[in-house]
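pinned: reference chain
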Amino acid sequence: MEERFETTAGQPDSLQIALSHYKQRFNWDCGLSCVLMILPQADREKLLENFNAICKEEGFNKSTWTIDLCYVLQRFDVPHKFYTTTLGVHPGYRGNSFYQSVLTKDEKRVNRKFEKAHLYGLQIRKASVSANFLISHLKDGPVIMLTNAQLLNCERCKFNKVCTEIRKCIPWPVPYQGHYVVVCGYNTITQKIYYRNPSFQDRLCIMSLETFEDARKSYGTDEDVILIYTRTRNDQV
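pinned: its structure tokens
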């Protein structure tokens, strides 16, 4: 039986959170670009005006991990919760080609940020969360999600569609390429999930539940998700 997601009682069949899109400027700032999408306009301008200084103060330079994004969100008083299956740097990533080049300079810093997170009021939970849990949260705000970019597939703009179709017929190992997106809606009738990809210009991308699960649970993501809690009412569609 094909897996489906469902909404909780009182939750609409479809929902889309209005976001002001932001396209990343570099090959490393997709996570910060997702943060910019959920910040109010005044805070967005403040982050952009002080971009280099904040990157330096936060210590990540040009290599951001999910914990770094949480510190930036806390800096701008954005209510959020961080769910991950690994509190710190996964020791198995030392042999991963994607992480190998950054682990030497990032591992101590990232682990230290996890250790000190409670001092800054960050809420971090070690857990693997379900698709329904994330869909249910969307009534309260968007989700910044770490994915394997190689497994993302937008049904609207056909991004990665050819590779996905070929992979179904001829399975092959997929290398990990970490990439953050903002999940911002769903439709239970069509069983589709809406997201914004900072790699692209302003557009709303659409993916299936299968794509959603494959991309976020790929080895390398630690199933990292940041649940954002907004104070405004979500627009329903």
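why pinned: The chain has eight helices and eight strands. Residues 232-237 have pLDDT under 50 and may be disordered.
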